Task: inverse folding
């Protein structure tokens, strides 16, 4: 099988590998699509090394089809039957640490991840070990594989938004119009909220397509003024920081209304420091929260939302590449040539 593996930081290599050996309670999936994100680019270029195993196959946003089961598994009882289209949640939680025991398996203390420590989806086939069988999530109805691969970023966004007061009466300000910000636009619009998105000018039209009623590329005090005008002087009920820029933190506080919520959704650079006026938090009674990764329940909800058609993210898929073109696909991520970039391995048909 063909696979894109990282033999050293910055050295991504396409290579032929033997089909992974199937244990009695393992599953082999035929990969149909893997979408790329900035994390994949940082791993491939050597900027991210923490938790990355030498020789690992990259890719954590995965759509696949069940191909083979270990002889200790029963189809439709232990796992979906061969031929079933599935999404694969990337988080393999231990299930027994304190975060897992308290319902926060998304921040498991012993987390392993497909695409960093465990071979991921930039390959024709992917081995799912027994410990990760719960990560296999069947669809309610088959959909385009690149769309199904978006269940991973969607699940992370859903985890954040379900913990925020987003409803038809809320005004939601989304800072950042990359793919994550656009997914947040879609979720807020699906809830009937009034949505304002702020980001680069080239991404404002996609933000409107995904449900934002108001868009702007304003910054600093100008942005604060525009938000106040949009919200009749009150400020936003929820501000979601969807891009890892520490400079947005004080702006978010100025844009939030009394009793408002600020979500630190994006990851920030290591060592980043943000300044915020504590009196804004104090006198406006602001709630600030973080959100990281997703639980298996979050992921199952994302697969259901996509495969049922309740949430439509198809406009995000702008480019598709064969696995043999993975370097070009990563270049497209680096140059922001599109929104979401999908890689399409040949799957089991190549073996």
Result:
């Amino acid at each position: 099988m063909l696979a894109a593996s990282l033999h050293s930081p910055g050295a991504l290599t396409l290579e032929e590998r033997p089909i992974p050996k199937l244990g009695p309670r393992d599953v082999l999936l035929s990969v149909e699509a893997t979408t790329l994100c900035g994390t994949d680019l940082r791993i491939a270029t050597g900027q991210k090394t923490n938790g990355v195993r030498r020789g690992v196959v990259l890719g954590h946003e995965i759509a696949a089809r069940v191909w083979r089961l270990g002889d200790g598994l029963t189809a439709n009882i232990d796992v979906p039957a061969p031929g079933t289209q599935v999404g694969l949640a990337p988080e393999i939680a231990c299930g027994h640490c304190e975060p897992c025991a308290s319902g926060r398996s998304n921040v498991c203390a012993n987390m392993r991840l497909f695409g960093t420590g465990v071979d991921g989806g930039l390959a024709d086939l992917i081995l799912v070990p027994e410990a990760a069988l719960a990560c296999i999530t069947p669809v309610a109805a088959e959909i385009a594989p690149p769309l199904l691969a978006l269940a991973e970023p969607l699940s992370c966004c859903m985890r954040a938004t379900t913990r925020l007061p987003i409803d038809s009466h809320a005004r939601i300000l989304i800072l950042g119009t990359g793919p994550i910000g656009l997914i947040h636009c879609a979720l807020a619009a699906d809830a009937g909220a009034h949505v304002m998105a702020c980001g680069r000018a080239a991404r404002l039209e996609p933000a409107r397509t995904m449900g934002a009623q108001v868009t702007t590329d304003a910054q600093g005090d100008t942005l604060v003024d525009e938000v106040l005008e949009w919200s009749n002087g009150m400020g936003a009920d929820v501000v979601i920081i969807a891009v890892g820029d520490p400079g947005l933190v004080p702006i978010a506080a100025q844009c939030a209304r009394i009793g408002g919520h600020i979500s630190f959704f994006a990851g920030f650079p290591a060592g980043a420091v943000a300044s915020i006026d504590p009196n804004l938090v104090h006198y406006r009674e602001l709630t600030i929260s973080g959100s990281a990764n997703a639980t298996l329940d979050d992921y199952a909800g994302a697969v259901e939302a996509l495969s049922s058609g309740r949430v439509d993210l198809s406009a995000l898929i702008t480019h598709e590449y064969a696995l043999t073109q993975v370097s070009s696909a990563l270049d497209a991520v680096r140059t922001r040539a599109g929104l979401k970039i999908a890689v399409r391995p040949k799957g089991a048909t190549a073996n």
The chain is about 25% helix and 25% strand. The longest strand covers residues 27-36.
